[in-house]
Amino acid sequence: MRSLRWRIALAGGALAALMVLAGGAGLAFYLQHTGEQRLRVLAASQLQALAHGLEFEHGGIELHSLPESGLGWALYKHDGSLLAGSAWPGMAPPGSKLAAPAVTRITTPEGQAGMLASGWFQPDEDDRTGGGEISASLVFSTADIDREQTGLLLSCLAVSVLTASLAALLLAAVLRHMLRPHTDLAEKIAALEPQCRGQRISTATLPAELVPVAERINGLCDRLEQSYQLAATFHAAAAHELRNPLAGLRATIEVAAGPGGDPASALATCHQIVRRMEARVANLLLAARLDAGQVEVRRDEVDVNDLLVQAWEAQATRAADRGLEALWDLQGSGIASADPEAVRMLLANLIDNAISHADRPGAVRLQATTTDSWVTVEITNPSSLDGERAARLVERGRRGASTSSDARHAGLGMGVCCGLAELLKGRFSVSADGRELRAVLTLPEAAEFTYW
Amino acid sequence: MRALVVEDYHPLRAAIAQALRGEGFAVDESGDGEEGAWFARGTPFDIIILDLGLPKLDGLEVLRQMRARGDQAHVLIVTARDRVEDRCAGLDAGADDYLVKPFAVPELLSRVRALLRRAYARKDPVLRIADLAIDTATHRVQRGSQDIELSQREYTLLEFLALRAGELVTREDIRSHLYDFRSESGSNVIDVYIGYLRKKIERDDLPRLLTTRRGHGYILGPA
Fold first, then answer.
1. What three-state secondary structure class fits A80?
2. Residue B18, helix vs strand vs coil
3. B29 vs B81, which has greater pLDDT?
4. Domain ranges, residue B49
5. CB contact, 8 Å: B60 with chain A?
6. Do both B106 and B43 map to the same domain?
7. What pLDDT, on a 0 to 100 scale, did the predictor assign at position B28?
8. How far is CA A270 from the centre of its chain?
9. Which of A11, A320, B27, B117 could form a disulfide bond with B122, CB atoms 3.0-4.6 angstroms apart?
10. Chain A contacts of B16, Cβ < 8 Å?
């Protein structure tokens, strides 16, 4: 594929050459035509001079002067017979008595180029030719003029070719300069690394036509980099979420298998670890699907109060191990319009988070209210987290970038909660005051619901 | 030997602690950084197993605080962070070793033993005092060619004395290194175990290796 510059140069050069050559050809035609006309006028005037220079005396003709370039001449009587001069086959008198002399190109028997002028005229009274008009024909050489004209034509052609070449060179230089931004942009795009890390194309020096192209590429780079970051975050989260329980599993098994090990107790511990791993893997996959926009939810009537109780019961043993007890406050119908599976996962994450983040024994308050077309779930646990650190828990992939473990057991789960709540047209927030960590989930109430 | 395990993931913490106790360590456990730092401040641990991602106070910060006040305890970082930058950050903060989760418990124990040898400037895993040989890897004890059967507590006490062979070891040293916070360690308990140990390694009129300095402590070495 030829470059754009080469294509424009080829088309422009061809056009310029064509125009210059056409101009040269027109000029040559004009010069030739004008020269021919002037030759004809010259031939006619030469013939007139010949006619005026004739003198008839003593029954003969005396020629006082002949053109310097004359190749031959002839006089004919009105009946066509030669009166004087030397006639060639091509020098016959004109067939009709034209008002003006006839002028034509002729080649002499010796091969010389010339111009033949012939015409009729009335001789003086002392003419003894028998009376009547006579015709005169004159041939003179055009070799010098033709040579000069040919030289002129060749000069025109040479100048045209030279001009066309110069025009092509100039065009190439101008194109090179004008297409520099295009070339620069192409080089910048080619220099972009596959991961586009921080690389963007500056639009400051680009011409207006190329700015949208650069902006589009920058936008694609943004999205690509975001994808890489999401992938890195996912990997970090996956590593963190899975390495701890895997380490716990492996260590528990190896210790149980060693001397003094307690296989029964280890089995129970392993079962507990596996249950939590299942939940974390589900969270990881859900987070990845949320990031990719691949999660679809259905609308159904969901008894949030009932699911909240079930979610707590599933983790009640772990809560008891950590010295936590539940304080219930469920008011209203608690029937939301949402996806039951999504709500189940949301509540499981919230309770898991409340138990994990409770940094001292105490009470976990579980409240649910239904007001103003919204079902609100509020879960509060003892925690020393401050408000700023708590707010960061809902940042998706917080764990991957975190150097502290504030996000432990929460960075991914909280991020998933946030994503799911948005998907369900609800709201989710986390706040803390240094004493308690509060997670609030709000879901739209079912417009009409039925009891079974 | 006295060990501290600072790890917030309870099943893993329990497994590590159990494995260390099986090796004869007195083990204290902590589930967050603040408590771990508190433990480390008040006790001369021989080894600290430290997670990095801890609640309340990050493991690296715990380590920095320890080194800043001149704490010389050997620290083995055990973490899920496996990037080179993380390892460098951990070691540069003053850790003696770094192990990425998940890991094999025998490897953890081997690394712990290696760190303890380093702590007492030993390269050979077999400690030799006169004709007494103590293999710290297998816990096998011999006097001459004769195997000596020791209980876990007796072995731990002997190994501790052997690592400080020729030095006066006080009862307080023994108490702080061989008993964790939950243990009952009255002064007579140590005397009782010293008595058991002496009977086993100095039987049959063998030359004495364990000397008592009344009111001060004990010295293991040729009299």
1. coil
2. helix
3. B29
4. 2-119
5. yes
6. yes
7. 93
8. 57
9. B117
10. 251
Residues 364-423 of A with CB under 8 A from B: 384, 402-406, 408
Does B19 contact A245 at a Cβ distance shorter than 8 Å? no
Considering the domain architecture, whether residues B27 and B94 belong to the same structural domain is answered as: yes
- Please enumerate in sequence order all residues whose Cβ is within 8 A of that of B162, keeping only pairs 6 or more positions apart, or say none: B127, B129, B132, B134, B220
Task: Please report residues of B whose CB lies closer than 8 A to that of A408.
Answer: 8, 53, 55
Q: In this predicted structure, what is the pLDDT of residue A68?
A: 65
Q: Which residues of A touch B58 (CB under 8 A)?
A: 403-405
Is residue B73 located within the same domain as residue B25? yes
Whether complex ipTM tops 0.90: no
Using the Cβ of A235 and the Cβ atoms of chain B, whether some distance falls under 8 Å is answered with no
Greater pLDDT, B191 or A99: B191
Query: Is the per-residue pLDDT at A100 higher than 70?
Result: yes
Contact B15 A252 (CB under 8 A): yes
Does residue B100 sit in the same domain as residue B152? no
Q: Count the neighbouring beta carbons within 10 Å of the beta carbon of residue A306.
A: 13
Whether residue B14 is predicted with pLDDT greater than 80 in this model: the reply is yes
Return the CATH class of domain A4-149: alpha beta
How far is A444 from A334, CA to CA, in rounded Å? Answer: 10
Q: Do A240 and B53 touch (CB under 8 A)?
A: yes
Domains of chain A: which residue ranges?
4-149, 211-289, 297-444
Token pair of A255 as six digits: 């210790």
Alpha-carbon distances, residue A439 vs A212, A304, A332, A390, A421 (angstroms): 44, 15, 19, 10, 12
What tens digit of pLDDT does each residue of B147-175 get? Answer: 999 988 889 899 989 988 888 998 888 88
Amino acid (1-letter code) at residue A387: G
Looking at domain A297-444, what is its CATH homologous superfamily?
Histidine kinase-like ATPase, C-terminal domain (3.30.565.10)
- Tell me how far apart the alpha carbons of residues A37 and A101 are, in angstroms, rounded to a whole number: 13
DSSP A442: E
